[in-house]
Amino acid sequence: MLHPPRPEPPPVEIRSIRESEPAHLPTPVLVMEALGKMPTPTAITIILTAVGMTLGAVVAIVALLGIVLATLAAIVGTVALGALGVGVAAIMLGGPPAPPTR
User: Which of 9, 13, 57, 101 is the most buried (most CB within 10 A)?
Assistant: First the structure.
């Protein structure tokens, strides 16, 4: 089967485009620009998601500190109960008080 010859595509013109904006913009500027181009519900959803993740991380850190402090309190309580047990054992197993020496 013979195919009809394809027409030649038009030549491609290459033009150099100068930068209209600086190459490095601060991140908050890029974020605000991107959020401004989005539909409002999408932008609000992204903002609330970021805030929720940040607050969740803060709550997790506070909970971790609470666990560490509770563990330390449990250790101190265990040592205190051990000392109390040793004191009670010393009182129970000790003999009568020694007479004073003058």
Answer: 57
* Two tokens, residue 89: 């054992």
Give dist(CA 44, CA 69) in Å, integer.
37
- No. of H helices and E strands in the chain? 2, 0
Q: What is the DSSP letter of 99?
A: P
Per-residue CA distances from 83 to 6, 23, 63, 78, 79 (Å) = 97, 68, 30, 9, 6
Task: For residue 17, give both structure tokens.
Answer: 């485009």
* Greater pLDDT, 102 or 20: 102
| pTM of the shown model | 0.53
**Cα angle vertex 31, ends 28, 37, to 5°?**
140
